[in-house]
Specification:
- The protein is an alpha+beta fold.
- The protein has two domains: 270 residues, 3-Layer(aba) Sandwich (Aminopeptidase), CATH 3.40.630.10; 155 residues, 2-Layer Sandwich (Alpha-Beta Plaits), CATH 3.30.70.360.
- Helix content is 34%, strand content 23%.
- It has 15 helices and 19 strands.
- α1 packs across α3 and α3 packs across α15.
- The relative contact order is 0.19.
- The mean pLDDT is 95.
Length: 449
């Protein structure tokens, strides 16, 4: 159980999170979805009256981001940016026990889309920022609060544009954002809090499979693009690229409550595949994604009419690359996976970005370590790799040290966190909200002085 705090910010964080959820800023990837201006205005209004500068930035109507700054007195002191996105992914209400945009507080938990991803962090950062501003805190370094739009669809209308066009507003030496902060006790009895120091790259591809049109009543010997595409999908699903075993993964495995034999298999490129097959499905998915470039064919378009053999089928494949893999190497992987079908497939590039990583052993790492001790004395930090994508990559490309972290109650482990992330009945306990707000305050004071 986390230790008690003297200045409890649980209530304000809970209320702000509920309001953010109820604004229903759903980003389905289309340019006019999201409507993050609603949450930008909510956050701007919440921070008003604290004596800090507040600005709104809007590349496209309805897609605003908000920036607030507590200016430091020393231009040579480090700048820290607290960044939380304000959009959420779509939801199917039929799968939920409660209204996904009700923001209800039930048995000590806030329910709603975004409660885990990542409005809880966005809210707790705003509460921490407001608390510091109202206290009259005069730091040496500048503290930036960044409530950013469009993270859930790649950051085109949010962080990417802001880092390219408004670096003077959001630029920072150090950045804190999602995804991390859960903790667990390892087989050695030590609690470890996850700080994600990097993330996999993105290499979305289209695969255009050609055939020959013909009448559907005579399929024998036909050149059916859909049949060929089905074999393409099968080959992608069974493709096994070489595992990447690095220091971060070795530390992750060393902390897992598994047998010595299983842990040894998970760090051996020659044994990792049979070891994965022994694990529970949820754990196997996690371990596979952390150590392999992955290929997931998720969308198919093709065919014209029931009685016409299709001459063109297009697949969309979600590919996530381990650090060090280039976009050209992704295409080489695809050709290897397709084998003799490669000549039948035209590869197109949808979206791509290389994997990014930030170093450890710096002032931010030390500040995070110190802040975890307030709630969990004796806890250690465990570096990790995010298998999806976050806005941290835009800051790393600019030279910032960016980590995905937070602080949750002891009831939130990777399994509970992962099952609610983009899932049904998404919710967060209020103890975690208060812990997080204190966590950001502690780090801001350590970094900015």
């Amino acid at each position: 159980m986390a230790t008690a705090r003297t200045d409890d910010l649980t209530g304000p964080t809970t209320e702000l999170l509920q309001a953010l959820i109820r604004n229903e800023c759903v980003n389905d990837g289309t340019p006019d979805s999201g409507h993050e201006t609603r949450n930008a205005e909510l956050l701007g209004g919440y921070l008003e009256g604290t004596g800090v500068g507040i600005e709104h930035f809007e590349k496209r109507s309805g897609r605003a981001s908000v920036v607030a700054r507590i200016e430091g007195s020393d231009p040579d002191a480090p700048t820290l940016c607290l960044m939380g996105h304000t959009d959420v992914v779509p939801v199917n209400p039929a799968g939920w026990s409660r209204d996904p945009f009700g923001g209800e507080l039930v048995d000590g938990e806030v329910w709603g889309r975004g409660a885990i991803d990542m409005l809880n962090v966005t809210a707790s950062m705003a509460v921490a920022f407001r608390q510091l501003a109202r206290s009259g805190w005069k730091p040496k370094g500048t503290l930036v609060y960044f409530g950013v739009a469009d993270e859930e669809a790649g950051g085109v209308w949010g962080a990417e544009w802001m880092c390219d066009q408004h670096w003077d507003a959001v630029g920072a030496d150090y950045v804190l954002t999602e995804l991390g902060g859960w903790s667990s006790t390892g087989h050695d009895g030590v609690r470890r809090v996850v700080v994600n120091t990097g993330e996999k790259g993105l290499a979305w591809r289209t695969l255009r499979v050609s055939g020959t049109p013909a009448h559907g009543s005579m399929p024998f010997g036909s050149d059916n693009a859909l049949v060929t595409a089905a074999e393409v999908v099968r080959r992608l699903a069974t493709y096994r690229p070489q595992a990447r075993i690095d220091d971060v993964w070795r530390q992750t495995v060393a902390a897992m409550p598994l047998s010595e034999e299983v842990r040894a298999g998970l760090v051996d490129p020659a044994q990792i595949w049979p070891t994965l097959q022994q694990l529970p499905p949820a754990l196997a998915k996690r371990c596979h994604a952390h150590t392999h470039t992955t290929f997931s064919p998720n969308v198919v378009h093709g065919g014209q009419k029931t009685n016409i053999i299709p001459d063109l089928v297009e697949l969309e494949v979600d590919i996530r690359t381990v650090p060090g893999t280039t976009q050209d190497e992704v295409d080489a992987h695809l050709r290897e996976a397709l084998g003799d079908l490669a000549a039948r497939v035209e590869i197109g590039r949808l979206q791509g970005s290389d994997a990014t990583e930030s170093p450890r052993g710096n002032a931010l790492w030390d500040a995070i370590s110190s802040a975890t001790q307030v709630a969990y004395p004796g806890a250690e930090l465990l570096p990790g790799l995010i298998v999806g994508g976050t806005d941290a990559r835009f800051f790393r490309d600019k030279g910032s040290v960016a980590y995905g972290t937070g602080l949750f109650s002891s009831t939130v482990d990777f399994e509970s966190f992962g099952s609610r992330f983009h899932g049904n009945d998404e919710r967060i306990d209020v103890e975690s909200l208060g812990l997080a707000a204190d966590f950001w305050i502690h780090i801001a004071k350590r970094i900015c002085g």
